[in-house]
Sequence to fold (268 residues):
Amino acid sequence: MRQNQLAEFQNWFDRYVKGFYGDDIFVNAHIKLKEKHSLEVKNQMRYLVNEIGLDISDSALAEVIAMFHDIGRFEQFRQYQTYNDVRSVNHAGLGLKVLRKYDVLNSVDPTERHIIEQAIGRHNQKSLTTDIDERTSLFARLIRDADKLDIFRVVITEHMNYKRDPENFHLEIEFPDTPGFTPEILDAVLNGKVIDYNLLKNWNDMRLLQIGWVYDMNFAAALKRVRQQKYLEQMFDFMPDGDQIQHIRRQVFDYIENRIRHSENKAG
Ligand SMILES: [Fe+2]
Fold:
């Protein structure tokens, strides 16, 4: 992937997204959320590829994947007024349709185009299936980490905005902000089990699920970023007190430290 292709795609992205803004505060807040998320995931991706040492061409490829990974979100919101895939459509698949409809990737070498499509199509799988070649898998694992990194920022920011000024909060609220949490979810995170989304009842449950993402992070570099940005400290600040939360907190922080230490030993 050439650098100037990346710049062209950025231009296309900006023009495309502009078309979704209108007079509705609710709609605009949602479009803005995903526009910023896409650009921030691209920034996180630039950090990751730099840390793992990809060359300029592969770095550009990874950044294109990052910028386009949620390209389906805009059409999803226009059609369904929600970002809930279960109640609407799989936004990853819709994104691939959008890219094809506008012939966005026509200038890209077919092998790279395949990688872009696979990585986008798989970015929101619960866990990444193994039926892909190693090179495609590298990019699929990268986008999954970069995406999660920025989702930490999004949920932390949005929750603070909501607390500060609930009247002027214009984003859809999927769960009530009630006290307590669901014990099965805490248990699943502690034991590395897959969480059934139907069990989620409130924001604390959602936060536990997201805290559990650290176990799914593919690259130690992503965990370094989590530590550096203090995402988990901020997530735990929102959680209720108690022994169980303290226990999971210690376990998660120990895990991060161990993974980072292990990767540094290997590199050294
Ligand atoms: Fe997504």
